[in-house]
Every structure is written in structure tokens, then in C-alpha cells.
Amino acid sequence: MIRILVAEADPQVCEIIKRCALGEQWQTDEARDGIAAVKLLRRQSYQILILSCELPVIDGPMILAVTKEQVDCPVIFIGKSGAEEDRLAAFEAGGNDFLQKPFYPRELVARMRNLLRLFGMAGTQSPGLTAGPIRIERHAQSVYLNDRPLKLTPREYNLLLLLVSHSGRAFSREALLSSAWGDSFEGGDRTVDTHIKSLREKLRPHDGCIKTIWGVGYKLAL
What we know:
Layout: E1 3-7, H1 11-23, E2 27-31, H2 34-43, E3 48-52, H3 60-66, E4 75-79, H4 84-92, E5 97-100, H5 105-118, E6 128-131, E7 134-137, E8 142-145, E9 148-150, H6 154-165, E10 171-172, H7 173-181, H8 189-202, E11 210-213, E12 217-220
Parallel strand pairs: 1-2, 1-3, 3-4, 4-5
Antiparallel strand pairs: 6-7, 7-8, 8-9, 10-12, 11-12
Helix pairs in contact: 1-5, 2-3, 6-7, 6-8, 7-8
């Protein structure tokens, strides 16, 4: 099981990363400041760290400085500034990658997968997901319905991946919007409804598997 430490003060950013991890069936621990992150690192081992450069008390680079004996895994720094000096500081502190906020959730997942492969942990990820007649091959980002390939847009793929990963769980439109488009997108509920309608059409004759939960959003029921 892949376990990730997310050290980030912004709860919205933490939620995005948590959803990314859930989609890959990875576990996450959260720390909202540097002190909490250091305490977690000293009692728990992780396969990947995501450290913010804007943490209170102790920032991401300082976390690595005081826990270098405990850290033996890839590290991704995230920060508001993409300036050259900030990126260089992150790499000089021992980081393996840097991602500027706001970021695309799928790009973060791709970067985490790549680091896990480089560190010899590629085999820990399940190659695919299934729910009834739906099968998703995540490495190839391919979707099959009764072994028939489906042509989905990137947004439709993101929506279906989240629903299949948590079959039976109801998601609000806001959660689906954030997962598929990111928090920086300014669209509304209608955007989600339109894409769900298109996704249902492509899933026929199993289009009824995406249920509308009135007052909440949608869920996959298979």
C-alpha cells in the first residue's frame, strides 16, 4: 500500500491531493504545519511526500533538513511561486520534483506515478479498475464497456474514474467539478450535469448505472 504524507496549510489543496490519492487507492496523512509533518515523519514511513513551500512555523525545505535521517522516499514540493530561485531551493533541499499551484490533479498523479516507478515501487499500483461491465486501464487511460473500447473526453474520463473508484458513494456536484476540472475552474453545476448526460449516453445500455442523488449529486451503482 502506498502511503503519502501531505504537508499543506490550505484545506482545499489537501482535499484535491486526497482525492487524487483515493483514485489510485493510496492512503494519505495530512499535516497543516511543519511541526505536525515532522512528528508524523518520525513515527511513520511513507512512500512519497508532498510538501508545501508555504507552511507555517517550518516550511517544506526545513522539514527535509530536520528529518533527513527518516526520509527515504521521493519528495514533491508544491508552491505558489514558480520562480527559478524557489524551484532551485526546493531541489537543493532534496526534492525530486516541483509543482506550482494551482496544478492539474491528473498532472500531479502522473508525477507521483513516475517517481514511484523511478524508486522501484511501480508494482504497488493496481493496473486497472472494474465495476460491473466497466473496466478502466489507468496506465493507458483507456475505458471499456463489456470489453468494447469507449472514446471519452478527458473530463468524462476523470468523472468516470472517480465514480468507478468509489462505486456506491455519492459525490456532490462541487466535488465532481473539483476532481475533473480543478478548483481554479469557474464553471457551475450545469457543467457537471452536461458531462454526466454525455457520459450516460456513451455507457448505453448501462447508462442507468450513474444515479442522480437529488439534493446531492451523482453516484455509480453497479
